[in-house]
């Protein structure tokens, strides 16, 4: 199999200056915008997006056209681009931000036009300094070129874009925490209900929150039609997707492919197979929050629905390969530690539970585990995510707490014996 | 009014008001759902997750927090399922794993929601064997409050209170995740007038007060409902007593008044009751020394003088009072002076006193609750955050719920950002407000008229500075009543002042200047003082000091030796709040109970007892031998008071007080009206070097009662002026510089505070400070910078 480059085409063909407006325009950039503003209407844009069957690339996979349709009629309305890419293993938005910022901006302008929005924000994670520089410069260029600001291309449509840099909190990738952070408040998720962004978002106004990759696909869809896009990939997972491949593979990196191949094909054809020819012990199909697959599940198809049916999620498109020599306890601990560190601290089960689990895993790892610890870990998990089901139920405000539960559940489900071997028999509670 | 809907909770069907929160609906129907963060006076945040219940949804049963979920038609709720129990126990375990469990040394133990709920819903033992989270503990976050972050369960009650209710967001979350903690900002202590409320609503012992810390165990406390008398709002309080000592006040959620909250002055200002400085025996001055004497001798002396005055028809006995006593005290005093001594030499010491026309006039009066249903609220008077703090909370609440606020005054207040419109003028130019409003002369006055015309408006009206003319206030009221649906709440701010007037004690608006004249003419031979330290507080203190030297015999009914009682010939020790039963009439004429919670110390007597003893010596008929009897007498005789007997007020349905109505009996004479009219026409002389002075009261001052309440004793000690940035610049004054204030021929050194809210050409001076009070008589003064090293004699 090979890559199918739609969103990454421009950056790979013009590696030296793909981020500049000159290069972008020379390669057909902003044509979709001209087309839309001149010949289309907001309704038509929405129809095209609906036709494309594109689903959100941030992790939840919600149909983008439907999401746009939910936006409440009240004004003003805002568009917020979630560029707080922080899910461990995910680095796809980064190349879009750094190497093709105008594709994002064009997508934002078209989206704003379609939803009658005159102010848009792009919230970039604090660690992405280069991305922020590139996007800021690109926004500047776009203003100068007349694609942003008052009365764009003489159509009467106006749009202002604000670039905002986060301050280093994973939780701000959760859309309502992002909105709080953007408003200058603590980055804590809001209660849903009532704070669904489409009705009560930024400054309590209707707000469309879209992922970088989703918005990057908008210009292509408008230029080539929604139908054309929907023909790519498979049913339910239309279009291409940029997967971030990492872990024990020979060629880690971002690969844009049509959805529908298996993880094995993807890992072997594009990732060059496992390092040193070892076997896959387990892999994470969609970012650190996703339940693990074992080596035996490599033939699951890389579509949103197939992965869900197999008990995990395609999430943010981060595929992490773990070879046969990996300590699964340490893998789990690494992920749990991450979530404990990134818990916002707002609600009790996540704030207390994630750190507690981290401490127990650390104790087991250091050889001081107790026989009761496995049941304890599962019970703590159950108190954060009752029933330990997938998709998870939760006692928390947002899914961060349950995210720390999935590695524990995966660990105990597939590798319990490995953990038991680490617990000295002489100690019992 | 609102629609009722049916919901099913634990297989029982209830009728609930639509839109109500599930947790509240359950509580009202006797179903207890455990909670920490939810508080009915604040917005829900769903943070602690303790109140999880199961609700049927189209996708099956879901766990949701009942504090964030509004009830909907046919909702099916399960609060007792296995899943719910498991989730709640899980949350409790999470809350406990890092909790220090130092209950044996924690103030909250015994009344601690965390403790109670652990008993009821919690796991029996801990599965947590790791090291707990540690913080330095406790740390002081203000003069009054200590913070223990290890005990904290991060419920955000204190932070929400500070932001939503009091509007001083000085306490906040910092850090995140497992290190999340409550903290103040660097170099900014939690200096809020309302900080004590956070201690009261803290569901654990994370916030404790210096006042109550380690003083008692809750199970040793007796609790008694009463009414605070620190200002005229009359907040409902629970007085907590152990071993005959009042140890703390807790706020009672009186829907119509304080809704559970108290200001810190009210909460901690009771401490003087147990001060070792209290005078507990009668003292007589012999050769400039006070010596102990007996009640018999003392009262004999007083009675003798009264008798003499009556015999010779001299009318030589006078009374100067404050308004601290109960209605029963004031009724007795009124009886003595009006019926027995038959004198009009009765004087009230209050720098911000309002006329009877204003207090009892025939117009629609506002209750505090009217704020909630007003479209617009207009405040023109003292800064209520300083003088009636809980009324400020009620105004803030009304504004939060959509009412528009207009603030009028010579300076903008610290909370002016709440207002839709702020109107300022030069002090002395109050007439300008009325005239410009009538003429809609400028943009802001047009806006003012727009905000009130035809709307339902509550007017909070008082004196914005000492010199604010009452006549103008009346003019203002007359006009606004013409153009809006007006309800007026006159801001008589002193304790039980309205009650004292209702009792007929201060039914003549005698000015203290009349007393000074009469005393200097030696027409007053005996002066009886109760409930006021006017030498420390009155704007006429200099003249009063002089006048007292002309009076033959001065009797002071007081608890402390202070600047006034020091000058008396006889000090009679009196009781204070919590040492007697009685009733209190608040600013809106709401009468509520004050209860005796502790025995009377030493030989102190209440004012009514002293009156009763005097009546006996004078062979007059007694008016009652107990508070109960006097209350009965009072309710029989005082207009409007028939429904406020002890028995009635003690009924549960009347716990929030009963509003009485008393209309003006003595009509103002026309001449006075005209006289004032002329006064207004006078042009105010302008001296370019002079600053116009604004005198106002801060919450904390240095009255003797506050000085003897250790927790708050020093909070009102700063003597300063507030000056505009522009004037400060032209005088080369920077913040906290010392300046010299010269009024008439007297100078004083004060600290300057630069304040954006002050208009150029004016300065504001807190007046409730000894040594500053007497400046209040004047309208203009000069200030100059004191250069460094210059020695200046403080007067």
Describe this structure as you would to a colleague.
The complex is a heterodimer of chains A (429) and B (795). Chain A is of the alpha/beta class and 429 residues long. Chain A has helices spanning 9-13, 21-26, 31-39, 42-52, 64-70, 92-99, 101-114, 129-145, 175-182, 212-224, 226-230, 263-270, 304-309, 328-342, 348-365, 373-384, 400-422; strands at residues 78-83, 119-124, 160-165, 207-211, 233-234, 237-238, 240-247, 253-258, 280-284, 293-294, 318-323. Chain A folds into 3 domains: 9-230, Rossmann fold; 234-322, Ubiquitin-like (UB roll) (Roll), CATH 3.10.20; 328-422, de novo design (two linked rop proteins) (Up-down Bundle), CATH 1.20.1440. In chain A, 57% of the residues are buried. The mean pLDDT of chain A is 96. With 795 residues, chain B is an alpha/beta fold. Chain B has 4 domains: 4-96, Ubiquitin-like (UB roll); 215-292 and 316-353 and 495-682, 3-Layer(aba) Sandwich (Rossmann fold), CATH 3.40.50; 358-490, Dimethylsulfoxide Reductase, domain 2 (3-Layer(aba) Sandwich); 683-785, Beta Barrel (Barwin-like endoglucanases), CATH 2.40.40.20. Chain B has 25 helices and 34 strands. In chain B, strand 1 and strand 2 (12-17) form a beta hairpin. In chain B, helix 7 crosses helix 20. The A-B interface holds A 169, 171, 186-187, 191, 193, 340-349, 351-356, 359-360, 363, 372, 376, 380, 382-384, 386, 393-397 and B 44-50, 52, 62-63, 68-69, 83, 86-87, 89-91, 93-95, 97-98, 127-128, 130, 153-154, 173, 175-180.
Widest sheet of chain A: strand order?
8-7-11-9-10
Distance N to C terminus of chain B: 63 Å
Total DSSP E strands of chain B: 34
What structural category arises from helix and sheet content of chain A? Answer: alpha/beta
> What is the straight-line distance between the termini of chain A?
53 Å
Radius of gyration computed on alpha carbons of chain B: 28 Å
Tally of discrete structural domains of chain A? 3
CATH 2nd-level architecture of the largest domain in chain B: 3-Layer(aba) Sandwich
What composes the largest sheet of chain B? 7 strands, mixed
The proportion of strand residues of chain A reads 5-15%
Low-confidence stretches of chain B: 667-684
Shape of chain B: globular
Name the structural class of chain B.
alpha/beta
CATH overall fold name of the largest domain in chain B:
Rossmann fold
Detail the poorly predicted runs of chain A: none
- Can you tell me the CATH architecture of the largest domain in chain A? 3-Layer(aba) Sandwich
CATH class membership of the largest domain in chain A: Alpha Beta
Number of domains of chain B: 4
């Amino acid at each position: 199999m090979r890559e199918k480059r739609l969103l990454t085409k421009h950056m790979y063909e013009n590696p030296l200056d793909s981020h500049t407006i000159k290069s972008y325009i020379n390669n057909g950039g902003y044509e979709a915008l001209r087309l839309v503003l001149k010949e289309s209407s907001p309704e038509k844009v929405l129809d095209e997006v609906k036709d494309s069957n594109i689903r959100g690339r941030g992790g939840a996979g919600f149909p983008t056209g439907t999401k746009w349709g939910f936006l409440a009629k009240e004004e003003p309305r805002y568009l917020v681009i979630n560029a707080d890419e922080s899910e461990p293993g995910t680095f796809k938005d980064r190349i879009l931000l750094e190497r093709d910022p105008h594709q994002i901006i064009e997508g934002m302008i078209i989206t704003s036009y379609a939803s009658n929005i005159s102010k848009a924000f792009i919230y970039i994670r604090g660690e992405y300094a280069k991305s922020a520089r590139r996007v800021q410069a690109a926004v500047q260029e776009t203003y100068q070129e007349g694609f942003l600001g008052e009365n764009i291309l003489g159509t009467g449509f106006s749009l202002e874009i604000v670039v905002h840099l986060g301050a280093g909190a994973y939780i701000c990738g959760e859309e309502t925490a992002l909105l709080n952070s953007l408003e200058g408040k603590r980055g804590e998720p809001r209660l849903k209900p009532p704070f669904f962004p489409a009705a009560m978002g930024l400054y309590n106004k209707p707000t469309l929150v879209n992922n970088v990759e989703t918005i990057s696909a908008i210009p292509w869809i408008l230029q080539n039609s929604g139908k054309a896009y929907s023909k790519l990939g498979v049913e339910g997972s239309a279009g291409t997707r940029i997967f971030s491949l990492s872990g024990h593979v020979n060629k880690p990196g971002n690969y844009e492919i049509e959805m529908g191949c298996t993880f094995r094909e993807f890992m072997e054809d594009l990732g060059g197979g496992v390092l040193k020819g070892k076997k896959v012990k387990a892999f994470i199909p969609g970012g650190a929050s996703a339940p693990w697959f074992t080596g035996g599940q490599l033939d699951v198809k890389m579509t949103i629905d197939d992965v869900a049916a197999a008990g995990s999620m395609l999430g943010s498109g981060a595929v992490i390969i773990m070879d046969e020599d990996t300590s699964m306890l340490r893998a789990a601990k690494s992920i749990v530690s991450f979530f404990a560190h990134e818990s916002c601290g707002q609600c009790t089960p996540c704030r207390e539970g994630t750190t507690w689990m981290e401490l127990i895993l650390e104790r087991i790892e250091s050889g001081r585990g107790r026989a009761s610890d496995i049941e304890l870990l599962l019970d703590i998990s159950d108190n954060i995510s009752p029933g330990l089901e997938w998709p998870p139920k939760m006692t928390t405000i947002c899914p961060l707490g349950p995210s720390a539960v999935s590695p524990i559940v995966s660990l105990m489900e597939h590798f319990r014996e490995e953990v038991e071997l680490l617990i000295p028999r002489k100690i019992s509670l | 009014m609102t629609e009722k809907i049916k919901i099913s909770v634990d297989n029982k069907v209830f009728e609930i008001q639509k839109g109500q929160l599930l947790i509240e609906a359950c509580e009202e129907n006797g179903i207890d759902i455990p909670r920490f963060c939810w508080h009915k006076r604040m917005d829900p945040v769903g943070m602690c997750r303790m109140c999880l219940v199961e609700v049927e949804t189209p996708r099956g049963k879901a766990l949701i927090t009942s504090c964030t979920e509004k009830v909907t038609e046919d909702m099916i709720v399960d609060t007792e399922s296995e899943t719910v129990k498991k989730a709640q126990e899980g949350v409790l375990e999470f809350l406990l794993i890092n909790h220090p469990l130092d209950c044996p040394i924690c103030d909250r133990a015994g009344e601690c929601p965390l403790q109670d709920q652990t008993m009821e819903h919690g796991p029996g033992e801990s599965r947590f064997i790791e090291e707990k989270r540690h913080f330095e503990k406790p740390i002081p976050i203000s003069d009054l409050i200590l913070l223990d972050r290890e005990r904290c369960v991060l419920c955000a009650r204190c932070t929400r209170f500070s932001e939503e209710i009091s509007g001083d967001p000085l306490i906040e979350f910092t850090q995140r995740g497992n290190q999340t903690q409550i903290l103040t900002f660097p170099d900014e202590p939690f200096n809020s007038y309302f900080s004590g409320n956070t201690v009261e609503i803290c569901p654990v012992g994370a916030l404790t007060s210096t006042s109550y810390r380690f003083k008692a165990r809750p199970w040793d406390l007796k609790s008694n409902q009463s009414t605070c008398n620190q200002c005229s709002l009359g907040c409902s309080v629970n007085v907590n007593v152990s071993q005959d000592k009042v140890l703390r006040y807790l706020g009672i959620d009186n829907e119509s008044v304080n809704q559970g909250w108290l200001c810190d002055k009210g909460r901690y200002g009771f401490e003087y009751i147990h001060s070792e400085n209290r005078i507990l025996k009668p003292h007589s001055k012999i050769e400039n020394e006070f010596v102990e004497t007996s009640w018999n001798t003392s009262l004999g002396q007083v009675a003798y003088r009264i008798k003499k005055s009556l015999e010779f028809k001299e009318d030589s006995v006078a009374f100067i009072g404050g308004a601290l006593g109960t209605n029963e005290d004031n009724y007795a005093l009124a009886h003595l002076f009006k019926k027995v001594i038959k004198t009009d030499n009765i004087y009230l010491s209050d720098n911000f006193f309002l006329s009877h026309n204003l207090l009892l006039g025939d117009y629609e009066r506002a209750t505090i609750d009217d704020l909630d249903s007003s479209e617009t609220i207009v405040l023109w008077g003292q800064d209520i955050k300083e003088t009636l703090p809980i009324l400020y909370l009620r105004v803030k609440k009304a504004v939060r719920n959509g009412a528009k606020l207009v603030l009028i005054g010579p300076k903008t207040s610290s909370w002016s950002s709440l207002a839709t419109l702020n109107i300022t003028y030069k002090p002395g130019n109050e007439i300008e407000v009325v005239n410009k409003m009538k003429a809609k002369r400028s943009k802001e006055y047009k806006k003012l008229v727009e905000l009130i015309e035809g709307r339902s408006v509550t007017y909070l009206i008082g004196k914005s500075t000492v010199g604010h003319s009452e006549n103008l206030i009346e003019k203002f009221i007359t006009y606004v009543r013409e153009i809006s649906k007006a309800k007026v709440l006159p801001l008589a701010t002193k304790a039980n002042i309205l009650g004292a007037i209702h009792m007929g004690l201060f039914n003549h608006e005698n000015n203290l200047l009349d007393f000074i004249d009469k005393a200097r003419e030696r027409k007053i031979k005996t002066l009886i003082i109760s409930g006021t330290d006017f030498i420390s507080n009155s704007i006429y203190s200099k003249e009063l000091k002089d006048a007292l030297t002309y009076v033959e015999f001065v009797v002071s009914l007081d608890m402390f030796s202070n600047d006034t009682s020091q000058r008396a010939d006889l000090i009679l020790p009196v009781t204070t709040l919590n040492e007697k039963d009685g009733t209190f009439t608040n600013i809106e004429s709401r009468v509520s109970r004050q209860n005796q919670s502790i025995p009377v110390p030493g030989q102190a007597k209440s004012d009514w007892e002293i009156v009763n003893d005097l009546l006996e010596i004078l062979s007059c008929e007694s008016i009652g031998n107990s508070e109960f009897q006097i209350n009965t007498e009072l309710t029989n005789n005082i207009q409007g008071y028939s429904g406020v007997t002890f028995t009635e007020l003690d009924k549960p349905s009347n716990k929030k007080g009963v509003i009485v109505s008393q209309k003006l009996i003595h009509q103002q004479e026309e001449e006075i009206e005209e006289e004032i009219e002329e006064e207004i026409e006078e042009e105010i002389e302008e001296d370019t070097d002079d600053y116009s002075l604004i005198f106002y009261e801060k919450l904390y001052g240095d009255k003797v009662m506050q000085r003897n309440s250790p927790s708050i004793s020093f909070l009102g000690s700063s003597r300063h002026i507030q000056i505009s940035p522009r004037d400060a610049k032209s005088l080369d004054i920077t913040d906290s510089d010392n300046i010299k204030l010269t009024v008439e021929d007297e100078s004083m050194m004060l600290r300057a505070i630069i304040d954006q809210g002050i208009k150029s050409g004016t300065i504001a001076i807190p007046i409730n400070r000894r040594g500053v009070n007497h400046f209040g008589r004047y309208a203009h003064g000069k200030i100059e910078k004191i250069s460094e090293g210059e020695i200046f004699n403080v007067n």
